[in-house]
Amino acid sequence: MVFDTQGAVGSVQHDLSQHETNRRPPPKYFCVLLPVWGGSYITQFLECSLLTLLADGNLPALARALPTRFVFLTRKKDKTTIQAHRAYLDLRQICAVDFLPIDDLIAQGHHSTTITLAWERAIRREGEAMLDTCFVFLVSDYVMADGSLATIAERMLAGADAIQAGNFQLDEEIAELWLQERLAIADGPLSLASREMVHWGLGCLHPATLANTVNYPLYHNAHTNRLFWHVDRDTMIGRFYLLHQICIRPQRTDFVIGSASDYSFVAEMCPTGNVVILTDSDDYFVTEVQPPHHESKLIRLGPQSIDDLVECLSEWTNRRHRLNAEHTIIFHANDFPASLQEARAEADSFIAQISSRLGKEQPFRNHPYWIGATAGLRAPIAKGWSTAVAAVRTNFVRWARSIIVGQIPNVRRVHPRWRDYRIMLAACDAIADPWSRLLIESSDLTGIGEALRQRVPNTAPFTLWRSSRDQPIMGTADKQFDAAFIGLVNEGPSEIEPGLRRLAAALRPGGQIIVAMVNTDSLLDLDHAGRAYAGPFAALDSAGLTATECCIGAISWWRWWANASCARAVKQLALRRHRLVPLIWLRIVLWGLPALVANFFSSFWPQNTSASSGIVSSLLIRLTVEAEGDESLGAACLAHENPLPRRHWPTISRGTPHGFDHADH
Hints:
This protein is of the alpha/beta class. It is about 40% helix and about 20% strand. The longest helix has 22 residues, at about 580-600. It starts with about 30 loop residues before the first strand and ends in a 28-residue tail after the last helix.
């Protein structure tokens, strides 16, 4: 599959339908649509999926073929986070980048509906130009083989109006090691060959994928939308009722979206059926790495039953779904085996038995599943005035809390963690020089990392947790940074000690590592902390990391219990359990007032890091990378003022980072 500099198509193999002869003029643009929101999903996309998209045979191939634009469908507040990442800068070197807010479409528990409506919004925004635009639909957890989007460009320029493709899922616990090793080595665009990926994938299939495998008899999926057959150790075939519409060039502007994207987009936007289904993993291959428990509620013991499949598929499949299943998709890590034809014949027979017994086709417009999904998504909008009043009330409460209690990490004296955050912010002042090169762990939950990003322009994210034992920390490469910040919640140095050893290689001699841990676990007392952390500290010293500061925040059992009880009562009140409201208010008064008074007055007491009893509320560790032949250099680089003036630290407007409520205790 070859493109010249003008985007002309070289040798092309395609399987367009009979409507190929009625071609429209060639398309003029590619528009890549990516819905993603929330810190963890954005991080996953920027540090993994996007790197595979940047491979030469993917987004660059689209951009060489036609003018290309990449559109992030996300929340307004997520735009800054995305733009601050270095992978975003690499993306801008390839194509134009745009942002389309979808805050009003996001609702808990309606992920698929939100994505469908977001894609629809982006298409309609183009107006009449949509007829000349090939829209590429991506999801944030795709890991894509190099050359996959080149295939998309080739088929669309050859006259296709829509392209569909299927994939399978991998078990995160088994698959992550291989993937992270390659990400660490790449340190930039990640080029993965399709056969290499298939070989990897067939060795770590997700339980949900195995549950959809007909010749795997141990268990099955109670709500199947795809079926697989093992052929040999390097080959698997699939018959998909539900295929992903990877690319569509709409034939009409007056389409109606009355069901989820993979139920309706192709049928609505390409009514003539000029659709290509990619059937060879050599041409196109993506996979998704999912936690082991994904779809676990649907798994049942025993082999697939045709009776159960017929009942399930009759409930939701439309005409497009049943046409999809007529195509065999081949996933292979080597050349086609001799047994492939036999496996295809077995699949043909199995699908034929199902097709002959399926009930009436479901509509692709106003599908029963869609009616329920959109009702749930739009329920808050339908509340009208009462919803607006509730929003005003919520905003007022947040404003009052920010004034009285403060916003993490800049909390007021009445906040239970005022002392903890004051110590951690003061310690970070030494690494917050605007001209320094700073690494910040991407999964930070303390809020301090975000404040550092606002204060230090030259920051880079890194991933500590997903690095293999023998590879560099993800995101650091061979760059010599000045400092690194790691924010933890309920995690101690024993969990990250191997990663800290590798992180030292990314810092200059004398560079600093700040580890700040906020504890919400009442089981971590001072005695336990001493025993748990002694070994990791000793190991770090032998690795050339000198521990030059350790500050432990501790509170009494009584204050811990009072703060926790008050926080639980406030949460219960937020749930509006009306019958219990009087009792909840009584608990807030009984526990809240004493806790408030105790927290306020204790904030004036001197910090005592040598306490022998109590609960650990925070832990701060400062490490310095030793310079060869100069043992004093690390200590010299650690000189800093304490405490830190509050005016230097930006306020984090998002309040509680990543849903973690630091007021719980």
